[in-house]
Amino acid sequence: MDITLNEVAAALALAPSDVRTDFDLNPEVKAEQLRIHRKRPAAVLCALRPLETGLQVILTQRAAHLNQHAGQVAFPGGKIDAADPTAQDAALREAEEEIGLRPDQVQLLGGLDTYLTSTGYTVTPYVGVIDPGWTPSPDPSEVDTVFEPPLDFLMNPQNRKRHHHDRNGYRRYYYAMPWQGFYIWGATAGMLKGLSDRLDVVRGVSG
């Protein structure tokens, strides 16, 4: 696909679309979830590393001992604290705390559509480009692994699967993008789908 930073910047400049949620593939429950959502604010950073082979996306696998979302793949990010001036500041703070990526090492390009999770968070995702030579320094209390799938892979609809799980008699569908032993799914995959949709508009891709 050979996605460029200019295309990403153009995609982020598009007007926001509808709020995205963990229930986008279950429209029969999406409206109800939006109505009762607890709206705890959070922010994440989709950091892009430009290499000669293309753009890489910085993702983390959360530490296995955590009480919430243990072992899951995620963008660096978390809850917005009262001391954070903006959601953008929260995303940058969390990235520094989790993987040692300082705010001055990130050039923010813009934000993606607001995303509501099934656990009650209203997430503001930001996209930024980082220095190719940056070296991750993960905090072991929060992060087990930092890994970098290619943006081209994540934006390719052929690599985006429709998976599901059954709980209490209810089947919930979600996006998943397995890559080299990592299982990218749920909110992280949903936010990446949001970027993919914007890039399709920029590239004039239909369907």
- Averaging pLDDT over every residue, what do you get? 90
Category by helix and strand content: alpha+beta
Unreliable runs, pLDDT <50, ≥5 residues? none
- How many helices? The count is 5
Order of helices and strands: HEHEEEEEHEEEEHEEEH
Helix % is 25-40%
User: If classified by CATH, what would the architecture be?
Assistant: Alpha-Beta Complex
The CATH superfamily title: Nucleoside Triphosphate Pyrophosphohydrolase
Q: How many beta-strand runs?
A: 13
End-to-end gap: 16 Å
CATH class division: Alpha Beta
User: Main β-sheet: number of strands, strand sense, barrel status?
Assistant: 7 strands, mixed
Oligomeric state of the chains?
Answer: single chain
Shape: globular
Description:
This protein is α+β, with helices and mostly antiparallel strands and 207 residues long. It has one domain: Nucleoside Triphosphate Pyrophosphohydrolase. The protein contains 5 helices and 13 strands. The strands form 3 sheets. Strands 1, 2, 3, 6, 7, 8 and 9 form a 7-stranded mixed beta sheet that branches. A hairpin with a 2-residue loop joins strand 12 and strand 13. Helix 1 crosses helix 5. The mean pLDDT is 90.
Task: List key phrases describing it.
alpha+beta; Nucleoside Triphosphate Pyrophosphohydrolase; three-stranded antiparallel β-sheet; 207 residues
List the helices and strands and how they pair.
Elements: H1 5-12, E1 20-21, H2 27-36, E2 40-51, E3 54-57, E4 59-62, E5 73-74, E6 77-79, H3 87-99, E7 106-111, E8 115-116, E9 121-130, E10 143-147, H4 151-155, E11 161-167, E12 170-179, E13 182-185, H5 186-203
Parallel strand pairs: 1-8, 2-9
Antiparallel strand pairs: 2-3, 2-6, 4-5, 4-10, 7-9, 8-9, 11-12, 12-13
